[in-house]
Amino acid sequence: MAIFLAGNLKNFKITLSEVIMKTGMDNNTVKENIIRRRKRLKLSQQDVAEKIGMSRTAYRNIEKGDTRLLSENIGKIADAFGVAAEELVLGYDADPEHDQTLCDGISYKRMYEDLRTQYNADSRRHSEEIARLMTEIATLKDYIAMQKDLIGTKDEIISMLKKLGGGK
């Protein structure tokens, strides 16, 4: 599941693992956010399990950390809590209009801008690499055509030599 960041870059996607890595979070932090949110909403584990279509035991295992938290489960749990997946993962509203401080003293806006800058640089680099590879493909196609031409010419020479050699 890709997480969509709020704000001007609605189509800017990063994965859950990228958010966790960038913010220094781990699955325990996300698990704690889930437990805290469930308790704040005064929902039981059974209530949440029913809302997301899994058994209470399976949901309890997510909260205990016995089950690896999958991106698809994050989305279902976030929907059950009525929040964005980003809010559940990060532990707060990921709206870039609110400049909140993450761990290590990095503000959300700064992280958002860093990610946007990185995305733009990666996008440009990928576009340049695609253009370079397309040029290389065209060059290789030309080379292959020349080699086929050369093979055809050599086949003609061999055929002529066979005729000359057979006529003696």
In short:
It is built from seven helices and two strands, in the order E-E-H-H-H-H-H-H-H. By secondary structure, the chain is mainly alpha-helical.
The order of strands across the largest sheet is 1-2
From the alpha carbons, calculate the radius of gyration and give it in angstroms.
29 Å
Helix content: 55-70%
Major β-sheet profile: 2 strands, antiparallel
CATH class wording:
Mainly Alpha
Q: Let me know the average pLDDT.
A: 78
Structure description:
It is a single chain. The chain has 168 residues and is mainly α. It has one domain: lambda repressor-like DNA-binding domains (434 Repressor (Amino-terminal Domain), Orthogonal Bundle). The chain has seven helices and two strands. It has helices at 16-23, 27-40, 45-52, 56-64, 71-81, 85-90, 108-166, and strands spanning 2-4, 13-15. Strand 1 and strand 2 (13-15) form a beta hairpin. Helix 3 crosses helix 4 (56-64). The longest helix is centred in the last third of the chain and has 59 residues, at 108-166.
